[in-house]
Design goal:
homodimer, mainly alpha, Farnesyl Diphosphate Synthase, 2 strands
């Protein structure tokens, strides 16, 4: 790793990640009613080092719309549980078959496949339990549950993972470049949907109106798209050391990525357009949007 | 299959199962936002022939406490989605590794492991989306989500499945009979928890008071326990033809069952005690409890 120049957005994200990880560590605990191995497996993945970008977005969009900081905890924690679940299941042998995630053994390498599947499942129920029992304003529970379920489910992230897996399987038979439409759909659902969810949930706990919620959704969706295109580009251009995982794996697995579809240069342009679309959406909201605009730039320019 | 004498409880359960399956078939549909294979895989398992006992309990307990029939649909459908998810994941190669379920190929034999895992995941999010968007009285959404998440999660069904899997693994190393305490914990969580959930959710949509909800929970938990002991006994005593799956499989896999722990006769006695405890709990509720009492007897006396 090389030393990078100071970046205020990156510093804010890192400081938040430390604080939020500490909150999760203190609050997501289990008593004897939960089997010990299951509790350990859940905490292994949920508390693994991570950028905590989705929770950061909940808090940032919440703050933009005037939410109480503590009101952001329940949706942010629930969303991070859904994200952790998705990583555990995506890494399984039947899916992406990854042994390492950010340099640590994946959940099923440590706890076995059965417990890893169950820990993922339990993280989903825990996410909804967290929304139902820890949301400060009870009026917000129904829209939060509906938003998280829709964006995580078959129309959102889980649907995106299905398309991704199917794409890899057909790709193996027939090595044509994936269509841009198909890659866009996968990225919008697989990554964009939870970013959309994060921003919208921040607005919900602030009591924002429908128009503002829709702007937050559009911001999140485009930010997620930019973030995922950047991820595709990193897999092609970065070293394994920087990534904490093997680079070039996407191509090896026949994954449907932006670079595989339209090449590196056009992918960079499309990532920039998504960043612009995100910034345009958020500028429609009154308040200081500079931090979120900088975050959108960061999502694309990050180097790991 | 031999012809059985008419049984009013069995007839009521069967008639309900047909009606409810038709409702699910009509209402749980997907548009082009959900990948086609995922939608098919979800419907394959959710609409598979089944007793629909958990939804039946929601409607029966709801009716006992004065709920509008249509108010029972959302919790009943959500619960059946959670049940279907659990069957898909339990059947996976990393779990019980079953090729057949009620005489039909299991989900992963038809759609592959990756899609089966994702279809299970999507059924969980769909269950909570159903509660958040189809519950008639918005006041009931938070307690319904909290109840379903708690009873399905790490303290409930998913926790029970974890203990079951771990028990089988340690059993293989060391063939001592499982302790009654350990089997009781597995059955109370793995099966009892969702039966508890069904009965409590029926009470919630009826606006029942806390004492009544607790009675309904106790009824459901004991009913589930009796049902699961009966299942253990059937695995030992029934033919594969009657079960729609291989019999004797529990012992072969070293599963922690009541007969393996305390023998057939004592298991029968304990099932009867659970039925009595269920009946005692429900009798504390004013109203006509005869149908639910008959159901408790049926759960134990059923022959498949």
């Amino acid at each position: 790793m090389t030393t990078k120049p100071a970046n205020p957005t990156l510093d804010a994200v890192k400081a938040f990640a430390e604080r939020f990880s500490r909150l999760l560590d203190e609050r997501v605990t289990f008593d004897e009613k939960t089997p010990v191995t299951l509790a350990e497996s859940i905490r292994y993945s949920l508390l693994a080092p991570g950028k905590r970008l989705r929770p950061f977005l909940v808090y940032q969009c919440g703050a933009l719309c005037g939410a109480n900081e503590e009101a952001c905890y329940a949706p942010a924690a629930a969303l991070e549980m859904i994200h952790a679940f998705s990583l555990i299941h995506d890494d399984l042998p039947a899916m992406d078959d990854d042994d390492l995630r950010r340099g640590r053994p994946t959940n099923h390498k440590v706890y076995g496949e059965a417990v890893a599947i169950l820990a993922g499942d339990a993280l989903v129920t825990l996410a909804f339990e967290t929304l139902a029992t820890k949301t400060l304003n009870r009026e917000h529970i129904a829209p939060l549950v509906a938003t998280l379920a829709r964006t995580a489910g078959g129309e959102g992230m889980i649907g995106g993972q299905t398309l991704d897996i199917e794409g890899q399987q057909s790709e193996t038979d027939n090595r044509k470049p994936p269509s841009l439409e198909s890659v866009r759909r996968i990225h919008s659902t697989k990554t964009g949907a939870l970013f959309e969810c994060a921003c919208r949930m921040g607005g919900i706990v602030a009591g924002a109106d429908d128009q503002t919620l829709d702007r937050l959704s559009a911001f999140g969706l485009n930010l997620g798209l930019a973030f995922q295109i950047a991820d595709d580009l990193l897999d092609v251009t970065a070293s394994a050391d920087d990534l904490g995982k093997k680079s070039g794996k996407d191509a090896e697995m026949g994954k449907q990525t932006y670079p595989a579809s339209v090449g590196i240069e056009r992918s960079r342009e499309l990532a920039k357009s998504a960043v612009s679309a995100a910034i345009e959406a958020i500028r429609g909201i009154s308040g200081d949007t500079a931090g979120l605009e900088a975050l959108a730039e960061f999502a694309y320019r990050r180097d790991r």
